[in-house]
Design brief:
With 509 residues, the chain is mainly alpha-helical. Helices cover 74% and strands 0% of the residues.
């Protein structure tokens, strides 16, 4: 116990120290929200990765999808790495950085407002962010409760309040720069931790080959495996279509999540984008691939502790059960690992929520002329408000909110992905098509919450994203175009010319 407590105290001390250090670098709105657009590739890549993977992935998703798909759940991690990280950086990274600077936009709603010349779009996008980011923020705490109960026997409320307080301190003090530095430190902890945990868990089951053999012999009812022998060690698992839906939601979803795209706004330069692409992808392969690979062995830990009174599997209890027999020092590492993942995601979400509400909703729409110092004060107050609100929801989550958490990614990415991505590349995207995407993304996922016309909320979210990618170009064909001169001016940022000196005075004939 002493080892675990010491590790936590050191971890907390480092986080707060970073916040105090970064305070002097957060004296204006640009620095507080974007780190002065001067964050290097390694910190940006780690900030992207640590914001991507939280306790929801490590505890909830790894347990649930590992139980349902077996080792095939590793495909989810690989999809996160190559679609959610690599392709996201290649397709969105440089263009987001260049156009967001041209438009002088610090948030995704502000991008929509200036790119499509619509104050209404900005306000509605801001409202969507607020509605769906807060429940997602609350969901992050849930994965921690099981781990802390297993390691410390600490009440859930104490765990939530401690994490919220410490995250609030360093984000309020140092803004984006404090978040980026802490994300880098937390990312290193996550990389080391996941490798040690996988090795320890497999070793506890007789090694890799013995664990595979036991998993292949797992017998289950035909409704799960459809009569397939060794279903949980097969290439695509027992349910390939559901697996594909999870891959699409958790991978393509990052392209439209404001807290993820925000990382591209702050990156330093062209070279940093290229380096960040590689680093972010490798990070995702190790962390996400490792989490889902570990979860693939979930059925080897089918003890009584993971079932509720009705005999149903409690997915959030699976990973803590897998870790409960580890040595104390490894459990301490796991606690710090999951805290790192959770606090980095939480800090990113509350910073995105507060900056969006301040810059996109309050400034201009409510307060016409807001001084920069006032904006900073309001953002810091809102960070505290959002953290308190998420704690209240997490302490006593009503059924509706619990369901809403599951569709947050689908609603946000379903609404934002298509108009944001197409807006970076095409001059033909219309204002009406953006409204249509907002309606389809939010409408499909929310209506499915009540009417259940798509059985899985995960598949509903994936369908909402794909639908947006179809709706935007189709609606753009039949609706009024934006003023050509204005669009040309925006896209001129990609065509800046420079003069260079010719290095050969005698060119070849």
């Amino acid at each position: 116990m002493a080892i675990k407590i010491i590790m936590l105290l050191v971890f907390f001390a480092v986080m707060v120290t970073v916040g105090i250090y970064a305070r002097k670098k957060a004296t204006n709105v640009n620095d507080f929200v974007l780190g002065g657009r001067s964050v290097g590739p390694w910190m940006t890549a780690f900030a992207f990765g640590t914001s991507y993977f939280s306790s929801v992935v490590f505890v909830g998703y790894a347990g649930q999808f590992g139980w349902n798909f077996g080792l095939a759940s590793t495909w989810i991690g690989l999809g996160n790495a190559f679609i959610g990280s690599l392709l996201a950086w290649v397709v969105l990274g440089r263009r987001t950085r260049v156009m967001s600077q041209k438009l002088d936009s610090a948030t995704m709603p502000e991008f929509f407002g200036k790119r499509y010349d619509s104050q209404a779009l900005k306000l509605v996008a801001s409202a969507i962010c607020f509605i769906f980011l807060i429940p997602y923020t609350a969901s992050i705490y849930k994965g921690l409760s099981q781990l802390f109960a297993m390691a410390f026997d600490i009440p859930y409320a104490v765990c939530i309040l401690t994490m919220a307080l410490l995250t609030g301190v360093y984000v309020i003090l140092g803004g984006y720069m404090a978040t980026a530095i802490n994300d880098f430190i937390q990312g290193i902890i996550m990389l080391v931790g996941i490798v040690l945990v996988i090795a320890a868990v497999l070793n506890g089951n007789g090694g890799f080959y013995e664990a595979i053999r036991e998993l292949a012999e797992w017998e289950s009812d035909a409704a799960v495996t459809l009569g397939q022998k060794g279903a949980f060690t097969s290439f695509f698992g027992p349910d390939v279509m559901s697996l594909l839906g999870v891959v699409v939601l958790t991978s393509l979803g990052t392209w439209g999540l404001p807290q993820m795209v925000h990382k591209f706004y702050a990156i330093k330069d062209e070279r940093a984008v290229k380096t960040g692409t590689v680093v972010s992808t490798v990070f995702a392969i190790i962390i996400s691939g490792g989490c889902y690979f570990l979860g693939g062995f979930a059925r080897l830990f089918a003890d009584a502790d993971i079932y509720d009174a009705n005999g149903s599997v409690m997915y959030d209890a699976i990973v803590p059960e897998m870790l409960s027999t580890l040595p104390d020092i490894l459990i301490g590492i796991v606690i710090v690992l999951v805290l790192s993942a959770s606090m980095s995601t939480l800090s990113s979400l509350v910073l995105t929520s507060s900056s969006t509400l301040t810059l996109d909703f309050i400034k201009g729409a409510i307060v016409k002329d807001m001084k920069e110092k006032t904006q900073l004060i309001i953002m810091r107050v809102l960070i505290a408000f959002f953290i308190i609100l998420s704690v209240v929801i997490a302490l006593n989550p009503p059924t509706f909110i619990a369901q809403l958490m599951g569709i947050s990614w689908g609603a946000l990415a379903g609404a934002f992905l298509a108009p944001f991505m197409y807006g970076l590349y095409s001059k033909k995207v219309t204002k009406a098509s953006v409204w249509a995407s907002f309606a389809v993304g939010v409408g499909l996922t929310v209506s499915n919450l009540f009417f259940h016309f798509i059985a899985s909320p995960i598949n509903a979210g994936a369908i909402a994203m794909v639908a947006g990618l179809i709706v935007v170009p189709v609606v753009s064909l039949f609706t009024p175009k934006m003023k050509q001169e204005a669009v040309d001016e925006i896209f001129a940022c990609y065509d800046q010319q420079v003069t260079v000196t010719e290095k050969t005075s005698l060119p070849e004939q």
